[in-house]
Amino acid sequence: MRGRPAPAPLPSTTFRDDEKVFSHGGYQLLDAIAVPRFGDTRYWPADCIGCPANRKPSDWRFVFPQDDPLINLQLREYCFALLNPSHRVLRKSLIFLSAVPLSVATINPSMMEIRKVMHWGREQGLPADLGLWDPEDWHEAIAHKASQVEGAKTVAFHLTAIRRLRQLTAVITGISAFDDPWDDETAEAIGAKAYDEDSPSRDTLATPAIPPQTWWPLLRGAWTYIHTFAPDIFRWRDHFAQQMEPRPDAPRSTSARPTRAEETDTLLEEWLSTPGNAVPVHEADYQNTNAGTPMWTALSKMVTGGRSMNIFGATNTSSRPEQRRAIVLAAIGEGRVATVKAGVGRGRGFTAPSYIAPGTGPGVTQAQLDDDVRQWLADPSTLVPVHATDDHGKAGEPIWAMAARMIWGPTPPETHRKRYAKRFDLRHRTGAARGRMLMEAVAAGRAVPVDLGVGMGWRAYPLPCPDAARIQREDGTSAPWRTQISAAELAFELHMLRAAVYVFVSALTLMRDSEVQEIQRDAVRTYFGSPAVVSRKTKMDPARPELYWWIIEPVAEALAVLEQLSWHPTHLFVALAPPTGKQPHSEPGVHSEVEIDFFINGINTIAHRHGLAKIPPSHVRSHMFRKTMAQLAGREPDSEIALGLQLKHAARRAVANRITQA
After folding, report:
1. pTM
2. Is-contact 36 45, C-beta < 8 A?
3. Percent helix, strand and coil across the chain, each rounded to 5?
4. How far does Cα 213 stand from its chain's mean position?
5. For residue 262, with 0-12 CB atoms within 10 Å meaning exposed, 13-18 middle and 19 or more buried, which class applies?
6. What is the pLDDT of residues 278-330, one digit of tens each?
7. Nearest 5 degrees, angle CA 62-CA 65-CA 68?
């Protein structure tokens, strides 16, 4: 059964369907990205003006309802008018808005509020023309909103959206002009009344400052991570990354992409031209195979590196296999032969020995494996991973697979992880001998318990780090900030380092969250003879111009650290890991509130180990950094001296900086 088709869209009496949505607001349009048109009734993506790094792509678009053509048209007209405040139709209708349009991040939720008002009116049986509502209906709409949400600010935003609609009724189809039901009363006061709160005073600051008892430990902790811990974190990251690289003798995949015919011919020529390579032939008669017959299956795997076992098999469509066999027989005639005795009892129809991948066959002898274990244990800092819990009675027993990984490197994804662990198989003489080496080290106290129940496997294995930076503790003693670290713990430290840079840069540059997250590589410049960081201004400016913010040397060091942490080709604040095959792309940007909370909670969790002061729990957000710095520079005693110490040369240039205007 097919779904019911969507109702036909209604035409607008004020705007043409072919008009570009972003055309009369001073927008800086990006090349090669289509600009949505007013006639697009489903959604308007705003990618053409660039999505700020601190916004999700899913939030940077307008989505319109499809069930009611009239509401769809009205919401499109509402958004189009706010996105194009200098449009000739608005001026002709005596609607004069600010020349700088509101942000997509403001218009989109405002449109959603209008949609909720319309839906509530339909449920109450009110006229579809909102201009025909009585003042009492509007007061009930506000009371209903207050019953659904918490906070006077949310109600105030809801009311502001209604007032914007009232201002635009001349260009919105099907809505008559109506008077303001709340007269000149402010939206904040109306929101407060909806909750029986006292009306906000004009002297009340909407953005509070960060308390000093939180501000200073927060900045000191961030700077410690940037200046002291970062070199260690990067060194350990490189160490674990090197461990993740497969060793040259790691088993190769037998399920890789099959070779093409031309590639196979080239591989055969290269293999036969390599000195020392000899064609394996049967030493004795075996079942239906005569002595001296080439072992075609084994040779196929040798030539292709295990990717094919039938490059010499006869086919009805190609003569290449016959030509390859002729080349091999010619090599045998030249004496390039190695006789092999085929195994017995390996299954019916067996005509060739199984192919053994490089690194696991005759190329790696048992004596070499024994030497690898002895060499690994020869390092006094080596600890053998053992089971931390008594699951299945294995507490204190070596974790064979993890030990094998530490000795011989990681197994490739297509190789079963137990393959290396069989090198410690206690049922065989050689494996038991190597296993006894590990158990003797455990008996000598060289063991570290690893809890595999956390699901991290080898990532939970801790490695000693004797070269860690030393820190001064509160009791006056000096000690390394870490004595050991695992791959799982390193992931935590990398996240802490990124959060520390965000906190530090936001606090000491007076940049907004959107401006901080737009910082790209090589952003530190010289501006009027002083160091500065360049970024894009996105708030209240659709052209997104590049601006400069003067900085001090520690901020430049923090950005240099972030450049080492970021993998993105342009932006610095991005996800910690690059996208994988299942995630083809990753947009730049982080969640500022998550970064701040993660850093504060992280400091309070590890403060006793890292020698840092705990941060009193408090509400900290990115916009509060600007207010706190402004108060430090303008309200504290000796603020001029404090400003000179905090911003140094930036204070001398303050008269030319845009922050002076605020």
Report:
1. 0.63
2. yes
3. 45, 10, 45
4. 32
5. exposed
6. 888 887 776 677 888 888 888 887 888 767 777 887 666 677 888 888 888 88
7. 145
